[in-house]
Amino acid sequence: MTEPDLGSLLEMLYAYQGSAILMGSHELGIYEVLSNGPLNAQETASALGSAPRSTMLLMNACVALGLLHKIGDEYANSPLAADFLVPGKPGYLGRVVTKEQEFYQPWGRVSHAVREDKAQLPPMTARLEKTPDTARNFLLALHDLGLLNATALPDHIDLTGHKKLLDVGGGVGTFSILLAERNPELRAVVMDLPQVRELAEQTIASCGLGDRIEFQAGDYNAPSLGEGYDVVLLSNILHDNTEESCRQLLAKSYRTLVEGGLVVINEFFLSQDGASPPVGAIFSLLMMLENQGAAEYPVEQIKGWLLEAGFVDPVAHRLPDPSPMVVVVARRG
Ligand SMILES: C[S@@+](CC[C@H](N)C(=O)[O-])C[C@H]1O[C@@H](n2cnc3c(N)ncnc32)[C@H](O)[C@@H]1O
Predict the structure, then answer these.
(1) Which of 11, 13, 203, 247 is the most exposed place for a label (fewest CB within 10 A)?
(2) Considering the domain 124-332 in this protein, what is its CATH number?
(3) Mutate to test the pocket of ligand 1, among 138, 142, 167, 189 (most ligand atoms within 8 A of CB)
(4) Architecture of domain 6-85
(5) How far apart are CA 294 and CA 274, in angstroms?
């Protein structure tokens, strides 16, 4: 890594302002309104119900960031905004933008979190109960991110001859869907908290896989995850948990599998020293902010836990750039 200079330091310092402009303009609905054609600031403000002067200042800042173009006194979505920030477009990332807004304030409390070693968000169970809309958006954003970062995951897992997969903390079923689409004989059970059922069943049905993927309400902290599976998938689960919980999850996964069954782990790649690549190291800190006692774990540490749980032949595959993910597969001997 080249040593950062003063310019990079200032860029780091002010980067939050760009995030705030992106999130605020999306929340107001500027990109949606402009998807019908260019408007001036006054017209945009009328459509949004916002103050004209402030709307103009925000839109000028969006132009400066390349999110809008300005022609005369009219504003139009830039190609980037038109592709990714307009609801209803196939590449729409609005749910991810809204999810990041949820994390914006916890990031602002990072020094407090580090001083106290204390997560800044309530556990998922409480978020599903107390702020269900935010939690639902979070789950759907993870689906969008899964499709963005890990569509290559099925290329790295040979599930020939495997018939029954347990997707632990499977969310809305993203990875069961990707694997079932690739492996026509595979059936899957998406196990997640009961409040996730409706969203998962809708997502699975919308992919036409309701006959092969079922949702099962459950708690992965329970003593057993079930039995008779020949694949257990833990996608983005270890990083939500403490080291001790990860070890327990892997031991329970082992007991859930039939002989020769596979455990498949999908995680952000993190180097052995925990400090690279930047996306992995920063994600690890985010996990500390989100879940009490959690972090991202280096691949070698995960492989060590797998061996300790009795698995054999753990192999890690980095997903192709720009995906930040790594898939670790091991077998119950
Ligand atoms: C980071 S998300 C991962 C979702 C999905 N596997 C993916 O890769 O996108 C963690 C998931 O675990 C679920 N979860 C959290 N605590 C759980 C528990 N105790 N038992 C079952 N599921 C849980 C959450 O509802 C959420 O869907």
Answers:
(1) 13
(2) 3.40.50.150
(3) 142
(4) Orthogonal Bundle (1.10)
(5) 13
